[in-house]
Design goal:
Aldehyde Dehydrogenase, Chain A, domain 1; seven-stranded mixed beta sheet; Aldehyde Dehydrogenase, Chain A, domain 2; single chain; disordered N terminus; alpha/beta; binds nicotinamide-adenine-dinucleotide
Length: about 450
């Protein structure tokens, strides 16, 4: 791995649990990308040539990530804020992605259309890939991009968020020890570094995870070179509780589907719709958990919910909550910042929220959950589908057939019954509407980094 290490230019990284600086990363100038992308292009010829060597290198990379787990997990918690146990789980998922894609190969296919021609579809790598990643799961989201891209035979330039560059830089140096030079390069810096990377003429695929507005800017940038884009964007997932739901039986799962990683999960539950008859019971069950959960530094072993990652995100969460309260909502739990250093916001459950309040219609991406009552299932489905987002959704009830029939009506990429946000490495992951373009995950993620190459050859007479 190479990084830009010019003296005197750096990004200072804040520990969100203390508000203090916890490290520094290089602030690369956009024009320095030309050399990085040029090296990625030159490294591509060797890397694409030998599929068996790639499999071997990527399994070795998975082992190396696991061996470096302690250092990676601690650094991740320092800069991101999540509880240490969750950082370890993220490191494990990073290694799992490498291992999964190491063993995945595209299938060459024969096509028969009745003519005496042998047509074969082979798969070729596209070229250097730009991977641009947000701050909520810096390592696992990076691996979800570079593992399939590398397995497909491409080289990768990876740019983490300036809020969380440290663990990714360490990951880059761990992988540099097992991958050929310039096959994976980590670059760090402030904007317009990402914009320049997305629009760089040497990049053939931009795989981006982040917010909807930045996703649009990335697509516009990539259009200049007609590079392929895969966009995994925001979500505003609804959980629809049916009238046969066992509230106490699902409350823990529902709570953590909303509050894991301090609510900073693209496919967290961000709105709950409960039948009017059960609404008060659902609010109470969630508020009880929000009031009693341990909030603190991710390095404290008792902590279950850490801080919000950064000051602008904290300000946004506080503003959406204040607006909802001003519009007539009531905080059944939380509703305010915690009076301590760092970026802490009390786990918040909101009731009496006007359905058109921004905390319902927009993505809050923090520890704040509105719970809304509904009259009929049709009304609940219409409300769940009624935003510009379409990432995931879930339906909760005891009659599984009925729950599945309701889930089938959700307009999103993944629907869950009685749980939320659990993914398999082997499944396609795709948002609809504003939540994304393209497909990641499983074989679909591999093919997203390949192009078909067709050879027609006359059959021997
Ligand atoms: P963001 O869009 O602000 O930033 C994402 C990345 O893009 C960062 O690395 C950032 O530095 C970079 N960037 C900023 N401006 C850019 C530009 N003009 N061109 C290219 N790159 C640019 O998002 P964020 O605040 O870091 O992350 C939170 C968002 O990510 C939420 O909306 C969340 O839902 C979304 N997200 C989506 C998924 C998914 O899989 N769908 C997963 C995780 C997070």
């Amino acid at each position: 791995m190479r990084t830009s290490d010019e003296a005197g230019r750096g990004i200072s990284v804040t520990d969100p649990a203390t508000g203090e600086t916890c490290g520094e990363a290089p602030d690369m100038r956009p024009d320095e990308l030309d050399a990085v992308v040029g090296r990625a292009h030159r490294a591509w010829a060797g890397w694409r040539a030998d599929a068996a060597a790639r499999t071997h290198a990527l399994s070795g990379a998975a082992d190396a990530v696991e061996a470096a787990g302690d250092g990676l997990a601690r650094l991740l918690t320092r800069e991101q804020g999540k509880p240490l146990a969750e950082s370890y789980a993220e490191v494990a998922r990073t290694a799992a992605r490498l291992r999964y894609f190491a063993d995945l190969a595209p299938r060459t296919r024969r096509i028969g259309d009745g003519r005496p021609v042998r047509s074969e579809v082979r798969w070729r790598p596209v070229g250097p890939v730009a991977a641009i990643v947000p701050w909520n799961f810096p390592l696992q989201l990076a691996a979800a991009k570079f593992a399939p891209a590398l397995a497909a035979g491409n080289t990768v330039v990876l740019k983490p968020s300036p809020y969380t560059p440290l663990a990714t830089r360490l990951l880059g140096s761990v992988l540099a020890a097992v991958l050929p030079e310039d096959v994976l390069t980590v670059v760090t810096g402030r904007e317009p570094l990402g914009a320049r990377l997305a629009s760089h003429p040497g990049i053939r695929h931009v795989t981006f995870t982040g917010s909807v507005p930045t996703g649009r800017a990335v697509a516009e940038g990539a259009a200049a070179s007609l590079a392929r884009v895969t966009l995994e964007l925001g979500g505003n997932d609804a959980a629809v509780l049916l009238d046969d739901v066992d509230v106490e039986g699902v409350a823990d799962r529902l709570f953590w589907a909303a509050f894991r990683n301090c609510g900073q999960v693209c496919m967290a539950v961000k709105r709950v719709y409960a039948p009017a008859r059960l609404h008060a019971e659902v609010v109470e069950a969630l508020a009880l958990r929000a009031k009693s959960v341990a909030v603190g530094s991710g390095l404290d072993p008792d902590t279950r919910i850490g801080p919000v990652n950064n000051a602008p995100q904290l300000a946004r969460v506080a503003e959406l909550t204040a607006r909802a309260l001003a519009d007539g909502a009531r905080a059944a739990a939380g509703g305010h910042r915690l009076d301590r250093p760092g970026h802490f916001f009390a786990p918040t459950v909101l009731t009496d929220v006007p359905p058109d309040s921004a905390v319902v219609t927009e993505e809050q991406f923090g520890p704040v959950l509105p719970v809304l009552p509904y009259g009929s299932v049709d009304e609940a489905v219409a409300a769940a589908n009624g935003t510009g987002f379409g990432l995931g959704g879930s339906v909760w009830g005891t009659d599984l057939d009925r729950a599945e029939a309701v889930a089938d009506r959700l307009e999103c990429g993944t629907a869950w019954i009685n749980h939320h946000a659990e993914l398999s490495l082997a499944q396609p992951f795709a948002g609809i509407k504003d939540s994304g373009v393209g497909v990641a995950g499983g074989p679909w993620g591999l093919y997203g980094n390949l192009r078909p190459f067709v050879v027609h050859c006359p059959e021997a007479p």
